[in-house]
Design brief:
This protein is α+β, with helices and mostly antiparallel strands. It has one domain: Thiolase/Chalcone synthase (Peroxisomal Thiolase, Chain A, domain 1). The chain is built from eleven helices and 14 strands. The protein has a five-stranded mixed β-sheet. A five-stranded mixed β-sheet has the order 2-8-7-5-6, with helices on both faces. Helix 3 crosses helix 4. The longest helix is centred in the C-terminal third of the chain and has 31 residues. The radius of gyration is 21 Å and the shape is globular. The chain binds acetyl coenzyme *A (ACO).
C-alpha cells in the first residue's frame, strides 16, 4: 500500500521542502468560441458544464519537453540552485514525444544537470503528486538532496478534435518544483497514492503495442490510436468520490483535521467536480484554488501550474497546510498534505552569481549537444 506518514519525527531529521517553482504556458490561446467554429458546441454549454473559457495550445515548435524545460528553468531560478545540484528529475506526463528517450532525459540534457537521474512517470493527471511523493521519500531516505519534479503535457496532440465531448476539456502547459532536503520540520507530511485498473477503459489513450486499438471493444470512444477516449459521466462520479475520500485519508496520516487545511490545490478538470468535493469535505469552495477557466485540463501539469499561481497570488503563507489532490486515467488518484516551510515565498531572492552560472550551464549544454551530434555525423560519414 503506497502511503506515508509524517516523516522525521522518530528516526530521521530530514524533511522535503518545496523551495522553487515555475510554470510555462504556450502563447497561443484557444477560446470556446474558437472550438465552436469546428465542432457543434458553444461557450455557454462548455462554461456551464466545466467552468472552462479558454485553454493554451502548443505551437508546432513547442513540445512537452520544451514546456517542461521552461518551467524547470524558472523553478531553478526561484530555488537558486545550479542544475548540477540536482540528483533526480521526474517528469509526470502522458504526452511524451518518445517512449524513450524520456522527456526527463531531454530536460536533464538541456539543463546540463549532469549529476541527475531522470525518468518519466505515467499516472495521468495524478502523476505530479506521485512524482512529488517519490522524490520526497528519496530525500527523506537520504539518497537525494535536490529533486526536480515536473508535470508537463501537450494534450492538444492526443485530442480527437472531432469529438466534442473531449476536445473542449484539455489544454497544454507545464509546471515544475524543486524539492530539497532540510532539517526544518514540515514540507511533505503525508500522501495517499491509489489506483483502480478495473476503470482503465473509462479514460484511455491507446499507444504503440496496444491490442485494444485494433479490434477489442474495451475503450469507450472507438479506441483510436494515440487519441483520448473518455466516459465523462463515469469519470465525473469517480472524481467527486476520490477527491474527498483521499484528502481525508491524507489529513489523518498527517495528523491534522480537514479544517486545518488552508488551501486545496486540486487537479483542474472541471469546476463542478471541485464544487462537489468541497461540499463533501465541508470546506469553503474559496479554499479551492481554481484556474480551470483559463487553462482547461492540463492533466499532470495542472497541479504545479495552480501551485505556482497560488504562490504568485500570495495565497500561501509560511506554515500553511496545503492539500494537493490529483485524479485521472488508470484510474489513479493521489492526495498529499504539505506544511509550507522554508523559505517564505516572499523572501525568495536569487543570487546574481548563481544566475550567471546557470546561464553558462545552459549554453554549455547546448554546445556539448551540438558537438556530440557533429562528432557522430563526422564519424559515420568517415566509416
Ligand atoms: N457541446 C454541446 N453539447 C455537448 C458537448 C459539447 N461540447 N459534449 C457533449 N454534449 C451533449 C451530449 O451529446 C449530450 O447530448 P444528449 O443528451 O442529446 O445525448 C449532452 O450534451 C449531455 O452530455 P453528457 O456527457 O451527459 O454531459 P455531462 O453533463 O456529463 O458533461 C463532461 C460532460 C463535461 C465531459 C463531464 O462529464 C465531465 O467533466 N466529466 C469529467 C471529465 C474529467 O474530469 N476528465 C478528466 C479526468 S483527468 C485525466 O486523467 C485526463
Amino acid at each position: 500500500m503506497a502511503q506515508s506518514s509524517p516523516p522525521g519525527s522518530e528516526t530521521t531529521a530530514r524533511f522535503a521542502h518545496i523551495t522553487g517553482w515555475g510554470k510555462a504556458l504556450p502563447e497561443q490561446v484557444m477560446t470556446n468560441d474558437d472550438i465552436a467554429a469546428f465542432v457543434e458546441t458553444n461557450d455557454d454549454w462548455i462554461f456551464t458544464r466545466t467552468g472552462i473559457r479558454q485553454r493554451h495550445i502548443a505551437h508546432e515548435a513547442e513540445s512537452t519537453a520544451t514546456l517542461a524545460y521552461n518551467a524547470a528553468r524558472q523553478a531553478l531560478e526561484v530555488a537558486d540552485i545550479l542544475p548540477t545540484d540536482l540528483d533526480m528529475i521526474i517528469v509526470a506526463t502522458s504526452t511524451a514525444e518518445h517512449i524513450f528517450p524520456s522527456t526527463a532525459s531531454q530536460v536533464q540534457d538541456w539543463l546540463n544537470a549532469s549529476e541527475a537521474g531522470a525518468f518519466d512517470l505515467s499516472a495521468a493527471c495524478s502523476g505530479f503528486v506521485y512524482g512529488l511523493q517519490l522524490a520526497a521519500d528519496s530525500i527523506r531516505a537520504g539518497s537525494t538532496d535536490a529533486a526536480l519534479v515536473i508535470g508537463a503535457e501537450t494534450m492538444s496532440r492526443i485530442i480527437d478534435w472531432t469529438d466534442r465531448s473531449t476536445c473542449i476539456l484539455f489544454g497544454d502547459g507545464a509546471g515544475a518544483v524543486v524539492l530539497r532536503a532540510s532539517d526544518t520540520p514540515g514540507g511533505v507530511l503525508s500522501s495517499v497514492l491509489r489506483s483502480d485498473g478495473a476503470g482503465g477503459d473509462l479514460l484511455a489513450v491507446p499507444s504503440v503495442g496496444s491490442i485494444d486499438a485494433k479490434e477489442s471493444p474495451v475503450g469507450v470512444n472507438g479506441n483510436q490510436l494515440y487519441k483520448i477516449s473518455m466516459a465523462g459521466g463515469e469519470v465525473f462520479k469517480f472524481a467527486t468520490r476520490v477527491v474527498s475520500e483521499s484528502i481525508e485519508q491524507a489529513c489523518r496520516l498527517a495528523r491534522i483535521q480537514v479544517e486545518d487545511i488552508d488551501l486545496v490545490i486540486p487537479h483542474q478538470a472541471n469546476r463542478r467536480i471541485l464544487q462537489a468535493a468541497a461540499r463533501k469535505l465541508g470546506i469553503d469552495l474559496a479554499k479551492f484554488m481554481s484556474n480551470v477557466e483559463r487553462y482547461g485540463n492540463t492533466s499532470a501539469a495542472s497541479i504545479p501550474i495552480a501551485l505556482c499561481e497560488a504562490i504568485e497570488q500570495r495565497r500561501i503563507q509560511s506554515r500553511d497546510h496545503i492539500a494537493l489532490v490529483g485524479f485521472g486515467g488508470g484510474l489513479t488518484w493521489a492526495s498529499m498534505i504539505i506544511r509550507w516551510g522554508v523559505p517564505k515565498p516572499s523572501e525568495q531572492h536569487g543570487s546574481l552569481i548563481k544566475r550567471q552560472q546557470r546561464h553558462v550551464q545552459y549554453r554549455l549544454a547546448r554546445l556539448r549537444r551540438l558537438r556530440r551530434r557533429m562528432a557522430r555525423r563526422l564519424q559515420s560519414s568517415g566509416d
